[in-house]
Amino acid sequence: MATVSDSLALGHLIRTERKRQQLTQEQLAAVAGVGVRFVRELEAGKESCRLGLALGVLQTLGLTVSIAARGANS
């Protein structure tokens, strides 16, 4: 499990998983139903990316999101 505390960390996580699955940005965009530009900006950590689309990309990669309060035991 990875801890993501900002948009740069989320972008890095997405890029790492995309590459692990041997997908290009173009392939991921097509499967996730988003534009290539969106994938590029998401991986670059752009803060204004749309949350719903970002969650769709995560789902496409088979990643889930868990929210925990700071200091909470995992």
What is the CA-atom radius of gyration, in angstroms? 12 Å
SSE topology string: HHHH
Helix content: 40-55%
Mean pLDDT, to the nearest integer, reads 91
The biggest sheet, with number of strands, parallel, antiparallel or mixed sense and barrel status, is:
none
Structural class, please?
A: mainly alpha
Q: Return residue spans where pLDDT drops below 50 for at least 5 consecutive residues.
A: none
Q: Calculate the terminal CA-CA distance, rounded to whole Å.
A: 10 Å
The percent range for strand residues is under 5%
How would you sum up the global shape? globular
The strand count comes to 0
Say what oligomer this is.
single chain
Number of helical runs?
Answer: 4
Could you characterize the architecture of this molecule?
Helices cover 54% and strands 0% of the residues. It has 74 residues and is mostly helical.
